Design the sequence.
């Protein structure tokens, strides 16, 4: 099992951090690349749309899960 790693990113002019396992981090970078989107822009999008009672790290994991589930169902 992959250890949780803390990462930092600048979104909307301020630094924030999130902690995810390496496979989630790699999947997030893959999603940003497939969408032709900057990594920080994808994090900002997830941050803007997450429920306020959900922390950013959890929101990222759920986003990655839903992204790949929806792609699989579309196939």
Sequence:
């Amino acid at each position: 099992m992959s250890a949780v790693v803390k990462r930092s990113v600048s979104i909307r002019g301020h630094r924030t951090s999130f902690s995810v396992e390496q496979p989630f981090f790699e999947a997030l970078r893959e999603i940003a690349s497939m969408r032709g989107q900057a990594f920080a822009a994808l994090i900002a999008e997830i941050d803007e749309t997450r429920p306020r009672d959900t922390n950013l790290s959890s929101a990222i994991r759920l986003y990655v899960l839903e992204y790949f589930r929806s792609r699989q169902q579309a196939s």
User: Anything to note?
Assistant: The CA atoms of residues 64 and 70 lie 10 Å apart. Helices lie at 22-34, 39-49, 56-74. The chain has a mean pLDDT of 94. The beta strands are 4-11, 14-21.
